[in-house]
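Q: Given only this backbone (161 positions), what sequence would you predict?
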């Protein structure tokens, strides 16, 4: 039941709620009013972001044997039992969040509004607090293995040298 709750909350907050807030503060523009080229570009960015996030969630469930929803150190759903360093986690220590940021960037491109960008920035700032909390937990849970992974993998993207 905890897993279902975790996935439901994740969807409700991150996939539906925050974009709805972005749309609301942008004056609730009609989809038909968005220029076609910008609409296609925003859809491409948003779909790429959602794809990365979904891949990360599936990978976390299969390999990490856990769920992504851990809120500021409070377990909402069962935490991962294995450190994930391959698949999407080879490109980023936080591929799910990287994908979510990309999704929000697509929404901002569609809305093309400073208020939507401000919501995105505020959410990104709050999520950085979550990331730092999660990093401390991962260091405690996985020790040197996580520290080595942290050195070779970027927080949001790993650029090849």
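A: Predicted residues:
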């Amino acid at each position: 039941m905890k897993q279902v709750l975790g996935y439901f909350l994740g969807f409700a907050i991150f996939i539906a709620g925050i974009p709805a807030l972005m749309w609301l503060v942008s004056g609730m523009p009609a989809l038909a009013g968005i220029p076609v080229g910008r609409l296609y570009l925003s859809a491409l960015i948003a779909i790429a972001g959602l794809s990365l996030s979904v891949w990360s969630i599936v990978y976390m469930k299969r390999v990490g044997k856990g769920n992504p929803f851990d809120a500021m150190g409070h377990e909402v759903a069962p935490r991962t039992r294995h450190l994930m360093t391959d698949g999407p986690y080879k490109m980023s220590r936080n591929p799910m969040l990287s994908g979510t940021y990309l999704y929000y960037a697509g929404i901002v491109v569609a809305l093309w509004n400073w208020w939507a960008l401000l919501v995105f920035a505020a959410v990104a700032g709050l999520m950085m607090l979550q990331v730092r909390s999660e990093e401390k937990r991962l260091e405690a849970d996985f020790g040197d293995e996580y520290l080595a992974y942290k050195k070779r993998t970027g927080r949001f993207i790993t650029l090849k040298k």
